[in-house]
Amino acid sequence: MEGLIISNKNVNSFDEIAVTIAVAEGEIIHATSVEDSMIELKELVQAAGAEVKAEITLHQKIDEDYYLDKEALDYLMTEIKNLDVNMLVFIDELTGMQIKNLEDLTGKKIVDRTMLLLDILSTRSNRRETKLEIEKAQLRYRLTRLEGFQGIYKYGNGICVNNPNGRRLLTDEEKIREKLDSLEVELAITVKNRFVQRSKKVGNELPLVAFIGYTNSGKSSIMNKLLELDPDHTEESAVIVKDKMLSTLDMSLRKSTLPNGKEYLLVDTVGFVSDLPGIMRAAFRSTFEELSYADLILTVYDASSYDLDIQKNIMDYTMQRIGITKKKNISILNKVDKIENIPESTDGKIYVSAKTGYNFDHLINVIEQTLFENEEEVTLLIPYSKFDIFNEIKEKKVIEIEDFTLNDIGVELNIVLNNDEFEKYKNFIK
């Protein structure tokens, strides 16, 4: 049997110290290798504010009652007596019976990967809708595992105890069902308001560029570089950059301007992790909907990461699951300042450094070409009897006084149209 791998790191300053545990029946867990899944799990524990003292991976079948078989349990019990740990974190989703049995046996807080992810997201959210969705996911997850939440979770503190508003999560079935009903009503109102706001954005008809990528790949840093091109840019309009997993949860929507003078919208979305649990997808509903509206998706990777291929597999898998594989997409490999030999870029795969600004001219040029490749500059002659057409165009586009002249027949307007607009106004082309 594989032994416990104990870290030499000083963890005395942490309130919660964990052992991470995995049972692997094969070579793959959560769409990646067992080793890489355990590295990610450790990073998630750290993102939640705790630290990992030891880890163990066991190649055996999962036990229905305890997750680990008796031999592994006996070994684990002996080893953790000598470690100052108070939390056991499991890479797989546990049943309520497994959580209860493990807590009763070890006296430690029992956490699984999905609970951990939900807890991290609950501390990152600021938008009302996101908070409601996360609390809903937390309660739905608990509802099917209630017997596992009647001990430490009922009276203890720390990770996986509170909702996004800092209040203790419910542990009583009747109260959970009542709260879920209440959350559904609040969400219905909030989502309706968001659709109203979205319809106003669509009415502006500015192209939308959306960032996605593996967590901590530098999406926000790249977005800030692009925002700096806008003549109205200020420090206040920049998005917050944090060097940790899942630091971006709430979407950041900003307007910017390209060197060709065209305005567009940029949105930074949540960073992804491997094999996003199904119960969490609803919490990202607004993010996924924003991606569905995007005219261009920028998928960001960490070019310096040892697991670049894994990042790509995760993102391909995620984009397929949420149905955006047919969107225009540019792959951006960030952090090339950390690598020695930088590969040559193409229009679909661009190597950059948000830190140094390396190759941003290429990226900006490709964004311009991609967003406005189907546009054509034309002159429209709109009769005064059809002046409502001129007003319609003016509501959707920025028209300067030098763009049009008045003559005896009507308004002569120089304008750039996309394919749909060209088809709509072709009868007025001079």
UniProtKB/TrEMBL annotation:
Keyword Magnesium: yes
Record keyword Magnesium present: yes
Residues that coordinate or bind Mg(2+): 220, 248
Organism: Peptostreptococcus russellii
CC cofactor: Mg(2+)
PROSITE patterns the UniProt entry points to: G_HFLX
Annotated protein name in UniProt: GTP-binding protein HflX
Record-listed GTP binding positions: 213-220, 268-271, 334-337, 353-355
One GO CC term on file: cytoplasm
Keywords: GTP-binding, Magnesium, Metal-binding, Nucleotide-binding
GO molecular function, one term: GTP binding
Domain Hflx-type G: 207-375
InterPro entries assigned to the protein according to its UniProt record, in alphabetical order: G_HFLX_dom, GTP-bd, GTPase_HflX, GTPase_HflX_N, GTPase_HflX_N_sf, P-loop_NTPase
